[in-house]
Design a protein that fits this description.
This protein is 37% helix and 23% strand. The chain has 511 residues and is an alpha+beta fold. The strands form four sheets. The protein has an eight-stranded mixed sheet with strand order 6-10-11-18-17-16-15-14, with helices on both faces. Strand 1 and strand 2 form a beta hairpin. The radius of gyration is 29 Å and the shape is elongated.
Length: 511
């Protein structure tokens, strides 16, 4: 009831303001400075007397985040995209009518614009001394209590607009995310790549092991899927002669939600002709260390309880060797399928028959169970089994393993890369094997893509490709434990009925 009373009081103030003006939502106030620009420009002016001699006028606009009212004086903290600045309001400067309007109408959370000169308080804080005041948006809902805020984590994600208002560290995460993507784009452009866009709606999915979302196009009466990866389209472009291409865009995978997974996520994928997986590992090292250094200010970063050394060179370890060194297997444990099955059983690893009966699939599962979470500093796990790599080129000296590497940092896969398979006949056989795996119950197996095989028959230049999960990279460099903290609007369950949702909103944001 108290929350409803507060909303009603704000509505009454809005009605009073609306009755006093011809434009309740004005759009003619133009700031001359952001809060940060004012603070930076006048940081060196030490005293109030020196500031008053300048007689400079500034116009700033933002949200009232803190408000104190006294008899003939008031001050607030005004927050814009750059930060906060203090503003003072005095009856002898604003005039009686202007001051009374501010005092009677303004609440924490309102959007206002002020113009004025600059001064410093007795404590030395740079302050805009308001000469004029404009109500830009008289808000109807109060902000959360600053000490309790949005206590429900899902409500923080659902009401991200309030989360961003209240938490500077949340704003910093998304500013860092933007900087990471900007640095990545700059790196590709310097390396003579072209940025492209490939279809998100596809007749059949491909390019990764994942379940797709399915939809239907009414006009064409056509079943479609949302893409799980852009890989096969990007390699078609390399066939066409675009020898260095990259894309940063959304992928969609119909999988569970966890601290590492969101059904909709951002991926960077790139292809470089005349490069193999060794060269691509060098490429990724160079790119990620450059991004880390520019965004984090150095290559020794903190992630949770770990201190991570991002400096090059990064370790490269074959999957079989990782299972021995980290997983505790001996060479005898890996000599054949029977020995590997016995080792997996001794470690309590249980798998369905289609994995247990395939050496490559089982080796990968043993690696995932025993090794992944122990890879803290950047490590490339290389030379994967062919069974889990249907699009990668085989090693020249063996057909059982491929020229593939995955990058792990703090126990999480950050990147997948390989020398691309460009033999159309071998690719056709690999697709056929994927179809067979689907028949055995693998609901993440790839379908047979006839057009992609046809594209390979026109000739794919020898090349290497890489994918990097942008969300996971941001998690690492922004020191965030969950993927939901780095996606503005992560996938959530619906709130429920309208009345229930309304009541929940009011409860959460009540003062």
């Amino acid at each position: 009831m108290e929350d409803n009373r507060i909303v009603a009081e704000r509505k009454a103030k809005f009605d009073a303001f609306s009755a006093s003006t011809s434009v309740a939502y004005p759009n003619d106030f133009r700031p001359t400075h952001t809060a940060a620009e004012v603070l930076e420009a006048y940081d060196g002016v030490a005293t109030a007397e020196e500031l008053e001699k300048l007689t400079d006028t500034v116009a700033v606009a933002g949200r009232v985040m803190f408000l104190r009212l006294f008899g003939k004086f008031a001050f607030c903290k005004l927050q814009d995209r750059s930060g906060q600045i203090q503003v003072s309001f005095a009856i002898d400067v604003l005039g009686e009518d202007g001051f009374e309007q501010f005092k009677n109408l303004t609440d924490v959370g309102d959007l206002i614009g002020v113009t004025g000169t600059l001064t410093r308080t007795k404590t030395g804080e740079l302050t805009v001394k308001a000469a004029t005041f404009r109500m830009l948006n008289k808000t109807l809902r109060p902000l959360p209590d600053k000490f309790h805020g949005l206590t429900d984590v899902e409500q923080r994600y659902r009401m991200r607009y309030v989360d961003l208002m209240m938490n500077a560290d949340v704003r910093d995460v998304f500013q860092k995310r933007a900087a990471i993507i900007r640095e990545m784009r700059d790196f590709f452009h310097e390396k003579d790549f072209i940025e492209v866009e490939t279809p998100m709606l596809q007749v059949q999915h491909g390019g990764a092991a994942a379940r797709p979302f399915k939809t239907h196009h009414n006009a064409l009466d056509l079943d479609l899927t949302l893409r799980i990866a852009p890989e096969l389209y990007l390699k078609r472009l390399v066939v066409g002669g675009l020898e260095r291409v990259f894309e940063i865009n959304r992928n969609f995978r119909n999988e569970g939600v966890s601290v590492r997974h969101n059904p909709e996520f951002t991926m960077m994928e790139a292809y470089h002709a005349h490069m193999d997986y060794n060269g691509m590992m060098d490429f990724v090292e160079e790119m990620v260390t450059r991004i880390a250094e520019k965004v984090c200010g150095g290559l020794q970063i903190t992630y949770g309880e770990y201190s991570v050394n991002m400096a090059r060179p990064w370790r490269r370890l074959k999957m079989r060797d990782a299972v021995k060194e980290i997983g505790g297997a001996s060479e005898d444990n890996l000599k054949d399928l029977g020995a590997l099955q016995a080792f997996a059983k001794s470690k309590g690893i249980k798998t369905p028959p289609r994995i247990t009966e395939d050496y490559g699939l089982l080796l990968n599962t043993v690696f995932e169970e025993l090794c992944e979470d122990k890879l803290i500093n950047p490590t490339f796990i290389t030379d994967h089994p062919k069974a889990i790599s249907p699009l990668a080129r085989s090693q020249d000296d063996t057909d059982e393993y491929v020229q593939r590497a995955e990058l792990f940092v703090v126990g999480r896969e950050l990147s997948n890369l390989f020398s691309e398979l460009n033999d159309p006949q071998e690719q056709a056989l690999r697709f056929a094997e994927q179809v067979a795996q689907a028949g055995k119950g693998d609901d993440e197996a790839m379908p047979y893509d006839h057009d992609y095989v046809r594209a390979l028959e026109y000739g794919l230049m020898p090349c290497a490709g890489v994918g990097i999960g942008i969300d996971r990279l941001v998690m690492l460099l922004a020191n965030q434990p969950s993927i939901r903290e780095v996606i503005l609007f992560p996938t959530l369950r619906p709130e429920g009925g309208t009345a229930e949702a309304e009541a929940e909103h009011i409860h959460v944001v009540g003062e």
